[in-house]
Structure formats: C-alpha cells, structure tokens
Design a protein that fits this description.
61% strand, mainly beta, 1 helix
Length: 85
C-alpha cells in the first residue's frame, strides 16, 4: 500500500446501508501524466462511513481531493481500467 493524494472527479454515486453505516460506490475520473501526455481514466471507488457521507453530499460532477493508503492496479483481462483498492 502507498500513501497518495489524488484529485478526482466523481462521475457517479450509488448509496446503500451496511450495518447502519452509509456506503457509496461508483466511478470517478482521475488525470495523470504519461511521458508528458496528460491522460484521464475512470476508476471504480467504494467508501463507508464519514467519507461516504461527504462524497454523497458532494454528488456527481464534484471534484474532490482524496488521500489515504491505496493500491493502484494496472488494467488486466478482468478489468480494462486501473483499479484502486
């Protein structure tokens, strides 16, 4: 796991309840540099609790700065896009 800070754009938000806590999931978009070229890719996300409340309140189309311990996985046969865990 790595500590990282990303600026992301929330593309979609779907909410549900798990054990009396709010859970949100959906797709977000992040930009990155690839050998001097700026690219953007969608990645799925999940959040539970306090951060889920903040994402739901911000809604789709909002731009957020997120930080934490995450692992970014490259595209694979199962997922054509990067994934964050």
């Amino acid at each position: 796991m790595n500590n990282i800070t990303l600026t992301i754009k929330i593309e979609s938000v779907a909410s549900s309840q798990i054990k009396n806590q709010l859970k949100v999931e959906g797709s977000c978009l992040f930009k990155f540099n690839n050998y001097g070229e700026v690219l953007a890719r969608p990645i799925p996300y999940q959040s539970i609790g306090w951060s889920a409340n903040k994402i739901k309140a911000a809604g789709a189309g909002s731009i957020l700065v997120v930080t934490g311990e995450i692992s970014i996985y490259p595209p694979s046969e199962d997922s054509p896009n990067h994934q964050i865990v």
